[in-house]
Every structure is written in C-alpha cells, then in structure tokens.
C-alpha cells in the first residue's frame, strides 16, 4: 500500500547518551512517483483546491508534525 | 511587468504571540532555500533556458514572491508587538540591536541573505536540477518548522506553502522531461 511517509530503524548503540529515537520517518511526496502528469487526474472543486494548495487530488499530501498528531485535524 | 493584487495568496492567521517562531520562520524569508532565493533564482535563470520552459520559471518565480509576502506577514505578526525583553528571550536580541522589530533578509541563524545561495549555470539541465533540489529543500524546511510549531493556524498556512513546493517540484521535473525529449522523434497522436 502506498504511503507518502517512509520509515527506517537506525542503529542504537548501548552507549548512546540520549534516549534513542527508534523509528526515523521521512517524507516521499507523490511528485516523486508521477513522472509527467498523466491526463484526466481527479480534481478538487475550485474552492477546495484553493485551500489544499493544488487542484489535483493525487498531488495532495498534507504534512502534520509527528510530535502533535493528536491535536491536529484537517479543517 | 507585474500586476499586484493587494491580498495574500493564502490567508495567514497567527494564534499565539511567539517571537521564537519568527526566528525559525525567517529561514524561509532570507535563508538559502527560502522564498527570496527561490524567486530570484527562477526569475534570473529564465533568460537562458529553452523557450519551452521560460513561462514556467516566470510563473513559479512570481508565485515565490507571493509566498515571500506570506512569510513576511507571519514574521511581522509574530514580532510586531514584542518588547525588547521578549525579543531577547526569543533569541532575537542580536536582531533587535541591529533592526528593532523590522524584518530583514537573513536566515534563522541571523546570517544575511547572499546571492551565493543561488546559481545560474546557463546549462538548462543543471539549472532545473538545482531548482528541483531547492523545492525539495524548502519542502523539508517547512516540515521542520511545522514540527517545532504548536500554532495550528500558522501550521495550516505552512502546510499550504509546503504543498506548493511539491507542485513546483513536479512542474520542474516535467520541464526536465520536456527538455530531454528526443528531438525529431516520430510522434504518434
């Protein structure tokens, strides 16, 4: 299944001074996979598009801080 | 020539007085991968790029100025009523000494903007690859600022700006595809 966020598990040394971050994530937005934009992609309505920042649904990739996921919600 | 519309590309609302956030946001104002660098880079490169993609650089360069204006609004709102004490506490003491509460083209570390942040190599592929890299770096910067910010209203505007970086990157990638398209290739419609 496609996800715009990838994860990896960095090496944790027994001698690391700070509590380890076990999972590191990074963003892989949809533009990396699209190549030349194919015709007839699904669109947002004009008003939705102005809010989303793109007309094209497949390019919409909102980013939320991993540190406060619970507080945020799509408004 | 440009036509100015006296409104922001996307509304900017700031819900908390937080000058510290302004210090981080200034990275997108006068930083290496900030909106000023982006606008000047694209609007300058467009003179020496194949005709097919000049318009793209003009459009995106122009939009970057609209983004610059949004960042300026955010920084201004976050600092306009900050006292010298608050500026000091937010790590903006050195900025205050030099600029009062005025905005300045500098990065989050206070280093003034320099033209060495941008390049115009004259080689279309080299220039477009630089532009793609710049968009991805700006996207990442927005992510790190969102991670540090707990201002939901501000984050909403930052998410919009990050989405635009994704679209710009996509369009630059398509520009590369146009330029590397084999000339004289048989076209089937």
UniProtKB/TrEMBL annotation, chain A:
The organism's place on the tree of life at top rank: Bacteria
The protein, known as: Spore coat protein CotJA
Alphabetical UniProt keywords:
Capsid protein, Virion
TrEMBL record, chain B:
Protein name per the record: Spore coat protein CotJC
The chain's coiled-coil residues are none
List keywords of the entry alphabetically.
Calcium, Capsid protein, Manganese, Metal-binding, Virion
For this chain, the family text in UniProt reads: Belongs to the manganese catalase family.
Q: Which organism is it from?
A: Cytobacillus solani
Q: How is the cofactor bound?
A: Binds 2 manganese ions per subunit. Binds 1 Ca(2+) ion per subunit.
Q: Does the keyword Metal-binding apply?
A: yes
Molecular function (GO) terms for this protein are: metal ion binding
UniProt: Ca(2+) binding residues: 59
Q: Where do the annotations place Mn(2+) binding?
A: 35, 64, 67, 135, 168
What cofactor does this protein call for?
Answer: Mn(2+); Ca(2+)
Q: SUPFAM superfamilies this protein is in?
A: Ferritin-like
Q: Known CDD domains for this protein?
A: Mn_catalase (cd01051)
Entry's InterPro entries?
Answer: Ferritin-like, Ferritin-like_SF, Mn_catalase, Mn_catalase_dom
């Amino acid at each position: 299944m496609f996800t715009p966020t990838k994860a990896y598990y960095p090496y944790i040394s027994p001698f690391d001074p700070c509590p380890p971050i076990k999972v590191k994530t990074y963003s892989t937005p949809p533009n990396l996979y699209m190549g030349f934009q194919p015709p007839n992609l699904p669109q947002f309505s004009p008003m939705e598009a102005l809010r989303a920042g793109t007309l094209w649904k497949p390019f919409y990739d909102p980013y939320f801080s991993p540190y406060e996921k619970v507080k945020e919600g799509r408004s | 020539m440009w036509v100015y519309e006296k409104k922001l590309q996307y509304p900017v609302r700031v819900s908390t007085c937080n000058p510290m956030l302004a210090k981080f946001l200034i990275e997108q104002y006068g930083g290496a991968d900030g909106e000023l660098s982006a606008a000047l880079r694209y609007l300058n490169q467009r003179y020496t790029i194949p005709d097919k993609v000049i318009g793209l650089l003009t459009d995106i360069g122009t939009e970057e100025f609209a983004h610059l204006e949004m960042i300026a609004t955010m920084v201004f709102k976050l600092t306009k009523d900050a006292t010298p004490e608050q500026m000091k506490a937010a790590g903006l003491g050195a900025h205050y000494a030099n600029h009062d509460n005025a905005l300045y083209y500098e990065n989050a570390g206070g280093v003034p903007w320099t033209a060495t942040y941008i390049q115009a190599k004259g080689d279309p592929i080299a220039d477009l690859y630089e532009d793609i890299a710049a968009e991805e770096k700006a996207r990442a910067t927005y992510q790190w600022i969102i991670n540090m910010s707990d201002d939901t209203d501000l984050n909403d505007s930052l998410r919009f700006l990050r989405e635009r970086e994704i679209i710009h990157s996509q369009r630059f990638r398509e520009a590369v595809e146009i330029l590397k398209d084999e000339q004289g290739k048989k076209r089937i419609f």
